[in-house]
# Entry
Amino acid sequence: MSDARSIAADVRSGRATATGTTSDYLERIDRSSLNAFTLVDHEGALARARAVDDQVAAGQDPGPLAGVPIAVKDLIDQAGLLNTAGSSFYRVTPDQTAIAVRRLEQAGAIAVGRTGLHEFAFGFSSENHWFGPVRNPWNPDTSPGGSSGGSAAAVSGDLAVVGLGTDTGGSVRVPAALCGIVGLKVTHGRIPISGVFPLAPSIDTVGPLTRSVGDAALLYSLMAGRDAADPWSSFAPVEPVGPAPDKVGLRVGVPEQWLAGAPMSAQVIEAFDRLLTSLDRAGAQLVTVELPDFASPEFLTAAAYGEIATVHRPFRAAGNPYGPEVEQRMKQADTVTLDEYVAGLAWRARIRQSAAVAFQQVDFVVTPATGVMTKVIGQDRSETSAGDVHYRAALSWFSAPVNHAGLPALAVPLSGPGTPPPSLQVIAPWWQEHRLLEFGEFLEREELSVVSTPPDAQ
# Structure
């Protein structure tokens, strides 16, 4: 499978055409049984591809994503295309495209379609009651993760070169892990969320799903930056992503309290231990850091659910139908009291403070991206080191607190056995996405992270 940079280079040089590349991917989507897309925009994608080819023919440069097919999660607005948010009743056809997508299209990208997700992005499996389950290219009986499962399945299954997702509790990193690709969660406010249906706006983020850290860095550099239409958007300067760092002198934090008692499979534990050994041998300095409050699911639930209930209150009052799993979670959200919500906000402040202290000692913190690597469609339980737990706990233990802390994090597949192998989460200080991506490039350069391809996508 080709990456975004090589495809764009071929289109910009005239060695390939955007129309031919787009047609190839549209045909793959039409043949696929992964249920990764809720809508395929054949006509619009080909029209945009022809426009890119016309620019090349006229001697103009369409941009660094010239002719690159992208998949867009079906809660991110695209002008003229139906936005369902994966639900039974939300049906909006916007007249404007979300700024994150618009910035990629201005760089020459071709949006080929809208991808499936967990209903309203409120879950981690992408088993959608209304649209059916999205299937994992590695094993169609298993989930690709969620909530951005359609975008992850599309990228892993070679139905798109890159994908866009959203991440409120791990919804980019979890599917990246389960599909064996790269997923970036940015600092809250770094990439604008205007034009994105909200789950919990104070922690919602938009991020790329890609086949390499280099592609993630490219998409990040194009999407990041303030948007006046987004009240959450930050004025913080966007630093360019540089070369991979030298391995000597990197200080890597290991949060033993957060890891202790985490629901993990033996496969994930072994892969993470191997990674720590490899980092040590590569010259990194491993440092134990204290992040005691990160393992506090009761506060996490209150902080997120109180906000989610507010977003959905008009829909709930109107009696709109939700799928069974999301309906159950909405009922939980409806019962969050003001006292519980305030306690959740106080917990957020505590974990941000503990993260600030930890990052005075280290450059990065590492954890597994997910506690398990397989979620069978239709099954809700996972067997882990902490016993039999609900799949949401096993998938989001390490990802969700990062959203509440507002920190950037990168999920990358580890080298080694597995289909796909377990995934690593690397967490950086606020606004340090450039250093995070540089470290991801270091992991790829040292062959500690390797993206592999499902057999049917080869």
